[in-house]
Amino acid sequence: MHLDTKKLLLKTQKQVYSERLGNHISKFYGEGFEFSELREYEYGDDVRRIDWKTTAKIGKPYVKLYFEERELNVVIATMMGGSSYFGTFRQKCDVMREITALIGISAISENDRFSHFLFADKLIEWSKPSKQRFSLYQALEQMNSFEMLGKVSNYPGMVQTLWTYLNKKALLYIISDGIGDIDLGRLSKKHDVVLIIVRDRFEEDPQELGFLRLVDMESTQSYLGNMDNDAVYNYKKALAMNDAKLIANCKKYGIRILKVYTHENIYLKLLQSMR
Amino acid sequence: MFSFEYPWALALIFIFIICDIWCKERNDAIFFPHVSFLFLKKSNKTPILNIFKWVGISSAIIALASPVITDHQNFDIKDSKDIVFVLDAGESMRENVIDAFGSKQNRFEIAKKTINDFISKRTNDRMGLVVFGDTALIASPLTFDAELLKSILNLQEIGEAGQKTAINDAIMQSYGMLSRSDTKSKIVILLTGGIDNQSEVSKDELLSIISKYKNTLYTIGFGNKYDAAYLQELAKAGHGMAFEARNKLMLSKIYSEINKKETKMLDTKPKKHYVYLYLYPLFISWLSLLFWIYFRNVKGI
Predict the structure, then answer these.
(1) Which residue from A89, B68, B203, B243 lies 20 to 30 Å from B15 (Cα-Cα)?
(2) Contact in structure between B206 and B171 (CB atoms under 8 Å)
(3) A214 touches chain B (CB under 8 A)
(4) How far apart, in Å, are the Cα atoms of A51 and each of A31, A45, B193?
(5) CATH says B77-265 is which class?
(6) Which CATH number characterizes residue A234's domain?
(7) Are B67 and B275 in contact (CB under 8 A)?
(8) With contacts defined as CB-CB under 8 Å, which chain A residues touch B34?
(9) A15 in helix, strand or coil?
(10) Global pTM?
(11) Which residues contact A179 (CB under 8 A, 6 or more apart)?
């Protein structure tokens, strides 16, 4: 990881800061460096905040207000079902790991609390919020050694688990391949949710393969048939329907979507989206 | 009649069905995400390959079981016999006979009916009919067509060949008819109700000719006016038997006895004639298996 990950700044659109002081400018007034406004002194304001220059110019006491700098709760939930064991350029699960690493390092370098949840058919592993690099390494190690084949992506279970486990508001990154019955509305009420969809080029635009057996990595069911134009057309149609449904859902609840392909430069892609 | 030569071969289909369930063929498989979520739901599986496969397998098995059409009726000319009915059509046959049920019928009608039944029982023979009165006439030459012979027989009437009885001439006529045929077994069945009183051929002449040939001569005296001793003499010379009948029942018994006797002498079993049909299912099987291979490979990778 010799990329300049400090350029990768995690930003949030919602006020999901923790109560501790940190490096992110919140909309709360308090002690900080980010100037907000000048306001006439009211009874009860701290006299130490009176700006003497303005007061001298106008003749009335004015206080200078600053935005408070708070800490961010960064949570990454990775859905590593069996279908992530796929990729023509790189494996989708490798890409997921790289995204986790980039976001995690960025969070830790910003002095934010970082925790990681690994899901498949159920909650596999999770780490408590931490600012230690070791915690991230451990999470990556867990992702590396996880055998995802035969595990069905359980999205409702993931939403339920995150709902119960995350007590504090968080900047929640959900990394998945975005196929299935996904409804993140409940989570978006509380957290700032960013959905990162990891897809493979071939998965979205498959070629005619001819007569062969396809094995599903999640259900381990096999499909023996002729993968001709018709089948590809039907597949794409079903995928487009799934995507349209997902995008509509995310739009409804104000969830940001970022789509990453396995053949792309993931760092640049994240950088672009977070600028 | 349609049947299978080896019907147990049809049981082979179970091996294929069991194998289709338990030991599936292993072919190249690739991992593909969300097959069950996106593929199986939407794509309509084309069963054409399966149809070709199973039609090919089942018709091959049907071909192996060898469907045949068996024809029992088909005769072999070697086993056939020549039978000549020599029927008395003189005035002596006009006499009525009262049967057990009380109905009257003249002898000629009874004789016609009985011969008719006899013809129906013989399936593999060539039969002819000689009718005699004053003279002997060939009513029908030797023929395999039993229906034709029956209709000719039904057309016969009393007195068409004259009023009197020319037994000797009639026998000579029938022997002459048989001498032209190459068949090994030749039979003459004489049915008369009177005494010879018109023949140009004398008794001694006739006897010498009869004994010279190997033909079998059955003589039947019907009623009460015939010369039993004379008929016996003829039958003895003709390597056959003499019978006597008073009424319809006795007559039909005599004919069935003759039928039995002549059938017994037939030592050959009824030959079966097979028409093999395996070529058609085999053709279908080849075609569908060819199409199966074609569709699998052409559309394959």
Answers:
(1) B68
(2) yes
(3) yes
(4) 14, 12, 161
(5) alpha beta
(6) 3.40.50.410
(7) no
(8) 83, 179-180, 216, 218
(9) coil
(10) 0.57
(11) A83, A153, A239, A242, B33, B34, B37, B38
